[in-house]
Amino acid sequence: MLQKEIINELVKIMGKENVITGREDLLCYSYDATPDVPDPLPDVVVTPVNTGQVSQLVQIARQYKVPLYPRGSGTNLSGGTVPLKGGIVLSLLKMAEIMEVDAENLTATVQPGVIIQDLNNAVAPHGLLYPPDPGTVATATMGGSVAECSGGLRGLKYGVTKHYVMGLEVVLADGQVARFGGKTVKNVTALDMVKLFTGSEGTLGIITEIIVRLIPAPEARKTMFATFTNLSDAGNAVISIVKNKVIPATLEIMDQVTIKTVENFSQIGLPTEARAILLIEVDGIPEVVEQEADTVLQVIQNNNGRVQMARDEQERDNLWAARRAALPALAQVKPTTVLEDATVPRSKITEMLLALEEIAEKYNLQIGTFGHAGDGNLHPTILTDERDKEEMERVHAAVKEIFEKALALGGTLSGEHGIGMAKSSFLEWELGAGGVGVLHKIKNALDPEGILNPGKMGFNGGTGHE
Amino acid sequence: MLQKEIINELVKIMGKENVITGREDLLCYSYDATPDVPDPLPDVVVTPVNTGQVSQLVQIARQYKVPLYPRGSGTNLSGGTVPLKGGIVLSLLKMAEIMEVDAENLTATVQPGVIIQDLNNAVAPHGLLYPPDPGTVATATMGGSVAECSGGLRGLKYGVTKHYVMGLEVVLADGQVARFGGKTVKNVTALDMVKLFTGSEGTLGIITEIIVRLIPAPEARKTMFATFTNLSDAGNAVISIVKNKVIPATLEIMDQVTIKTVENFSQIGLPTEARAILLIEVDGIPEVVEQEADTVLQVIQNNNGRVQMARDEQERDNLWAARRAALPALAQVKPTTVLEDATVPRSKITEMLLALEEIAEKYNLQIGTFGHAGDGNLHPTILTDERDKEEMERVHAAVKEIFEKALALGGTLSGEHGIGMAKSSFLEWELGAGGVGVLHKIKNALDPEGILNPGKMGFNGGTGHE
Questions:
Q1: pTM of the predicted model, to two decimals?
Q2: B220-408 fold
Q3: A268, A288, A352, A366: least buried by Cβ within 10 Å?
Q4: What pLDDT is recorded for position A356?
């Protein structure tokens, strides 16, 4: 329990209406979208309404050495927002203003609580697009997605969140407010602090304002749907599309387990006999789209796939609905869904797909795999039950082997979900002792008291779920 | 002078042939392309041939507390490679292997000494392109351009160096070798150390291997040349092109001082009566190029410009030769060329151009301005003489006012030249005390002895040229 005195100070700063202490309310902030991690209650949840309040709040947390957990909508998939060591959850949902859409400079300035989709709705009338497109685009906040450097469906062609963050206002661990970057395309004024805070998972500072880059929205698009009777063919088609110099806006895969589960869940007529489906969308100006679609068709046929083009927006929406249903469909099969995002160089995707099948068999687990094949960013999804201790042991062993395999193929522990609690114990596998040492040095330098989101990325005693 | 013992150790590690101590040779490493900064002799120059040697070298520097200055071709424009406090210059020119061009993953892996143009020559046969295109592309190294996060002519459409660096091998200040990132499009494994070391100007570690992203080379391009009798019209055309959703590959400006000087220098028929020239290149697939060129033509006409299309590659090359001659042409007018790169949001470019004219008049200085107008990245170039103390005072006052103006317009101290020595004393103007504090904390955490490139970015007593 926090001292009464601290609660009083928080109320003084933010008003009673922004300080939550009721147990039922606190419960909602004890977890995020991550399975198989602890879900401790925070002591208090605060909802500041401006940067000044965040700054004062950080100073109090520092003064009393109370942990502070910044949080958006809690769609995190690596336990990044869980209040592991109790203390104060800092919800940024009340700082949700789209401050500016600047069509001349192709930028938008937003507060962290803005929902990603709302930003896109605001820029669309200007013919502009904010490309990052995580699966939770309708729920997740800009602040959360910047703090986690979200990826999503458009990574291959358009990059991920970090490629769009141009400027940040950050409340530092000592309460000072700093601004880095801005609206210029180029900026090399000293160390790139915009990129350091992007993806820092709330461990280095609290993001209170964000300037992002926008692009002219593509004029046209074409969506294709390809089925394969062989997993390798599907993987090879992915590699070959890019080798043929077509960079699709999205290039997604679903394996047979996922296809069957989605079909069972939503009955939209997916071919359950297929070993894999690819969903491909090319976009740009109409002439480019035509050319690229032709190339994709040919590549798929050359790799023994059957391809179908969405004839209209309705068919397109159905296809994407199927893809977006993958996780919810898988999630309803069993009580616990362990969703991984080990990622490999695109050329290794066939190998990784086959390895995942082998791992499922070896540990006798049900694994559905879907994901952003064009990025080499697969989501092997283990369907299990947290209460089954014996099966969970096999799950943990399988997860380890997935990481080992991804790293052996030149990949990474996490393509887009972050390290959080879930992967912190594996960090050294990828970064070595020297690399992990660098992370800790930076963390200790910027947050010497360890008040910011303790227990994540292996900082301040975070050791993961094992 | 270094102790004999240190030189002996260096020879033991790298062999005599890689340890340079002759005064005439040392002289070549006392300066880079930056005017108006000190040019002290280093004590020794070493040319290691592999990462192991770099690591041993760093350990020796640390043990004896001797400063270490990593260096590529020395094309730096902010004094970033000057051995300000004596010690060891570490030339990476002997680590110059293109280790791999991976056409499937669209990546290349290079050692730091590779010349940028050589990388592009190596990837061109695969139909690929490494887009960053600093003016010194034929001389500058990959290591130097990553350490400085070089910009150049293609920033608007293609971004700058940091948008292409996917992985790094870095020798840390304690001699440990760490690897960050890799060949995956997505990677959120902990803090983004790839981006932190990119643009760190050699102050945090020595870059010994680089993985960069490549893109399919554009199939077609069109180059246009527009003249204006009014500076505001030119600025407004720049803003309007992008507002019309055309993102040119390059969008360059030359003002009248520059036009006259280039014409005088190279006599290629530039219209010396014009107040400004824009050089615009659009690229992509042929149909896109046609459409975009049409839009550009119209925008220029709407802004009272006269436009001419390069009819063939020869005409195109001539136009770009004129643009690339801007700096050498200006540089031969007077003994000293103070080249700035204050940068503003694109929408403020007209205001900045007019302000530069006023500043030239106010301080009675000759300033030619050219640069990457599409990025808001102008290069006001002051033609002066270091030996003229009185004029240099006016130069320094003008530079200050240029920075003030750029920042007041929401811009940055440095778009692409870095901070180095030249701009370190102005850092707080942009970043505030809190922001500068963050930089110092990170520097102290990663290089507590201050051996890496001391005197740059305001670290370890670097205070700039004033």
A1: 0.96
A2: Vanillyl-alcohol Oxidase; Chain A, domain 3 (3.40.462)
A3: A268
A4: 97
